[in-house]
């Protein structure tokens, strides 16, 4: 057995070990571990579910996980190999390789978590490069033996807050611990939310509220874990809770009301995505339900973010509450000289040609009233999915009716006034 030689740094140990026979055994273990890790990574990529999935989020997640597998597999193989080899030979080469693999795994894990927590964010790229450079610089300092001296120097730079001594090293450690804890909680919340939203046995409202509750609990747990890491006593949260109660009673009452109303809406299932509602003189389709507001999309494409408490305190007119069948009215006026029966048949036939219009209840046309400028007709139809585009249906149906009216010489009148001269004025000479 050949004991390891002590040196000032791992790099010095490596240089001293380069001429010994043990380096061959270490390289053999290293190359075998890297080759087997590469093979296991390929097997993981071939059997991951993202290859058959159409979800972009899942594909990104599994791609990041696949990249992380290589250094993890390599570490899982190199560490036992070093443990076995050190009984007979020195392991200075493997002692440097393990931090390298650990640094690579740390970088890829950090990038994976950031992209998972903040998907499709361009501002993440500078932070990803910063994390990579920071880890590699720390690794170089460790290999050269300079890291302990730099850590000691950062610890010597200190200041006092009251009776508490704080050093630069302690502040950096606290920030890192807090950031890692919060990111871990957000990552778990995102993963759990994705699984809940993919559960087909639950209603959409139930999925949303379960995902929000689970995310809130995990983030709160992450904060409670992170606060002691930066030296904050959790008992002070009782004081903070009292201050929060006062804040809710004063300035945060409206915000709290919106969040509570959001949970009520999700629990009682009074609103669903795709519903067509009218509230506060705004009509539109519900496209998103959050814990703070509801998104209504009108026929012209504009979106309104309405606070949740509006749906609790105001009267909501829903056209799709019991079912998604929606009644549409098409008022049309024809001239008195036009054949009314022909016009009514044209309107009825045009409606029956549209696949979006339901055959039951069947479309009907009524002669509504005799107006000043013409005869008012009204076409009544029913559609199954108003989210499919009501404005497009109206436009297409009106164009077809207008075309048929022109072919049959049916007049669409405009306001007219008939002026009669009862007694012509005499011209005075």
Question: How would the blueprint of this fold be written?
Answer:
Blueprint: H1 10-17, H2 22-47, H3 56-85, H4 92-117, H5 124-144, H6 147-156, E1 158-161, E2 164-167, H7 168-197, H8 204-229, H9 236-249, H10 253-268, E3 276-279, E4 282-289, E5 293-297, E6 303-307, H11 308-313, E7 317-318, E8 326-334, H12 340-352, E9 364-370, E10 375-383, H13 390-407
In spatial order, strands of the major sheet run: 6-5-4-3-7
The strand count comes to 10
Would you tell me the structural class of the helices and strands? alpha+beta
Mean pLDDT rating = 75
**What are the segments in which pLDDT stays under 50 over at least 5 consecutive residues?**
1-7, 50-60
Largest sheet: 5 strands, antiparallel
Order of helices and strands: HHHHHHEEHHHHEEEEHEEHEEH
How many domains? The number is 3
Instruction: Tell me roughly what share of residues is in helical segments.
Output: 55-70%
**Beta-strand content estimate:** 5-15%
- Summed up, the helix count is 13
Radius of gyration: 36 Å
The shape is: elongated
Explain what you see.
The protein has 429 residues and is an alpha+beta fold. The protein folds into three domains: 10-145, no CATH class; 235-320, SH3 type barrels (Roll), CATH 2.30.30; 326-407, 2-Layer Sandwich (Alpha-Beta Plaits). It contains 13 helices and ten strands. The protein has helices at residues 10-17, 22-47, 56-85, 92-117, 124-144, 147-156, 168-197, 204-229, 236-249, 253-268, 308-313, 340-352, 390-407, and strands at residues 158-161, 164-167, 276-279, 282-289, 293-297, 303-307, 317-318, 326-334, 364-370, 375-383. The strands form three sheets. A five-stranded antiparallel β-sheet has the order 6-5-4-3-7. It has a three-stranded antiparallel β-sheet with strand order 8-10-9, covered by helices on one side. A hairpin with a 4-residue loop joins β9 (364-370) and β10. α7 (168-197) packs antiparallel against α8 (204-229). It is elongated, with a radius of gyration of 36 Å. The model is unreliable at 1-7 and 50-60 (pLDDT under 50).
């Amino acid at each position: 057995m050949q004991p390891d030689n002590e040196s000032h740094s791992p790099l010095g140990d490596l240089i001293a070990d380069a001429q010994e026979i043990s380096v061959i055994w270490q390289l053999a273990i290293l190359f075998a571990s890297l080759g087997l890790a590469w093979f296991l990574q390929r097997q993981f990529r071939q059997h991951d579910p993202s290859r058959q999935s159409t979800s972009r989020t899942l594909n990104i997640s599994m791609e990041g996980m696949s990249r992380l597998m290589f250094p993890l597999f390599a570490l899982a193989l190199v560490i036992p190999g070093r443990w076995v080899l050190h009984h007979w030979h020195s392991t200075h080469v493997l002692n440097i390789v393990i931090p390298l693999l650990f640094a690579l795994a740390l970088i890829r894990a950090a990038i994976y978590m950031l992209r998972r927590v903040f998907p499709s964010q361009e501002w993440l790229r500078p932070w990803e490069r910063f994390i990579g450079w920071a880890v590699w610089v720390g690794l170089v300092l460790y290999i050269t033996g300079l890291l302990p001296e730099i850590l000691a120097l950062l610890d010597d730079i200190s200041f006092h807050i009251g009776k508490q001594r704080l050093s630069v090293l302690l502040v950096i450690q606290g920030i890192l611990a807090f950031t890692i804890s919060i990111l871990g909680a957000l990552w778990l919340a995102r993963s759990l939310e994705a699984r809940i939203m993919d559960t087909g046995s639950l209603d959409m409202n139930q999925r949303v509220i379960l995902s929000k509750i689970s995310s809130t609990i995990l983030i709160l747990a992450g904060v409670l874990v992170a606060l002691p890491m930066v030296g904050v006593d959790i008992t002070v949260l009782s004081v903070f809770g009292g201050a929060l109660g006062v804040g809710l009673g004063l300035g945060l009452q409206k915000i709290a009301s919106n969040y509570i109303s959001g949970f009520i809406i999700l629990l009682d299932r009074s609103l669903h995505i795709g519903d067509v509602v009218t509230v506060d003189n705004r009509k539109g389709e519900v496209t998103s339900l959050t814990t703070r507001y509801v998104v209504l999309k009108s026929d012209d494409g504009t979106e309104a973010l309405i606070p949740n408490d509006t749906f609790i305190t105001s009267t909501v007119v829903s056209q799709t509450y019991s079912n998604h069948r929606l009644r549409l009215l098409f008022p049309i006026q024809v001239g008195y000289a036009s054949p009314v029966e022909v016009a009514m048949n044209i309107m009825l036939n045009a409606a029956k040609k549209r696949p979006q219009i339901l055959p039951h209840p069947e479309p009907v046309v009524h002669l509504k009233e005799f107006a000043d400028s013409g005869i008012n007709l009204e076409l009544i139809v029913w559609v199954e999915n108003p989210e499919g585009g009501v404005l497009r249906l109206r436009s297409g149906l009106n164009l077809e009716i207008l075309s048929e009216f022109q072919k049959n010489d049916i007049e669409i009148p405009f306001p007219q006034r008939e002026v009669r001269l009862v007694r012509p004025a005499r011209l005075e000479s």
